[in-house]
Write a structure and sequence with these properties.
Length: about 280
């Protein structure tokens, strides 16, 4: 395999059709009334929302914008409204400031200087709201995690990654950009820096340590069992950079798995007792 940007290109019409069928089919099988998802104003959630609307009809899609005062962005608010208007789905805004502040005040050990733990509260508070709407309205939660961030463990466990289905999780970030452009996501959303919105000024590429255009090719190489030295050679980058990405990827496996349990019986949930979904 030659690791160039061409290696990440794919058949856009076929992929779009498959993703729409996947969303519609699972909604039908689970007998839910519609879809609910978080809409941040970023490319991943915008693409997931747009695909959902195209798959099942915009009247069955509810997007929740979940800002809070510390990371509030007028641009993101503008972009959530832009996407909702263009694809016709319902948008509801819930300011979660009071919710996260209540968590801060209620936790005896809360440390305001621990920004990671503090930020993760925000991600989990957002998901609590989304699942309330899912339960209350008998809706399916659609996630917007992409393959790059999932492989890197760049998400909050039981937070922004939590969902019933995640249509984009086998597409690298640069592939999501291709898909977004194809289905009509405005360029101002496609091209803006990604951020988990956990604290002010946070950007994904800065924390990951490189541009997605390089990261995705490293991950593609690792996915296809290409030796790290060969990946470094093809991409003309230091071997240390590739090794660091590999180590990071492998060390975050615990975030991608179901809770670990000890095998006691003949078949164990999460190990060898895994069933396909069967409608009731």
């Amino acid at each position: 395999m030659i690791l160039t940007k061409e290696a990440l290109k794919f058949d856009l019409p076929i992929t779009t059709a498959r993703l729409k069928r996947f969303i519609k089919d699972y909604l039908t099988k689970t007998k839910r009334k519609g879809i609910v998802l978080g809409l941040s104003g970023g490319i991943d959630s915008a693409t997931a929302a747009a695909l959902s609307a195209l798959a099942i009809g915009p009247h069955k899609v509810l997007a929740l914008s979940l800002p809070e005062k510390e990371t509030y962005s007028a641009m993101d608010t503008k972009h959530t409204r832009l996407i909702a208007k263009k694809f016709g789905f319902q948008l509801e805004t819930i300011d979660i400031t009071d919710i996260v502040q209540a968590y801060y005040k209620s936790i005896p050990a809360f440390d305001r200087n621990d920004k990671l733990s503090k930020g993760n509260i925000k991600a989990r508070a957002r998901m609590t709201c989304i699942y309330y709407y899912a339960n209350h309205g008998n809706r399916l939660v659609v996630g917007s995690s992409d393959k790059s961030e999932t492989m890197m463990g760049y998400f909050t466990k039981w937070g922004d990654v939590a969902a019933d289905i995640s249509p984009l999780m086998d597409l690298y970030k640069t592939q999501v950009r291709q898909l977004a452009e194809y289905i009509g996501i405005p360029n101002e959303i496609v091209s803006k820096p990604s951020t988990p919105q956990l604290w002010p000024g946070q950007t994904a590429e800065e924390e990951l340590g490189m541009k997605y255009e390089v990261l995705d090719l490293i991950l593609l190489g690792l996915e296809n069992f290409i030796d790290t030295n060969e990946i470094a050679k093809q991409l003309s980058i230091p071997i240390e950079s590739v090794e660091n990405i590999k180590t990071h990827w492998l060390s975050r496996e615990h975030k991608r798995r179901s809770p670990l349990t000890m095998k006691m019986e003949y078949r164990t949930i999460g190990a060898d007792f895994r069933l396909p979904y069967t409608p009731s």
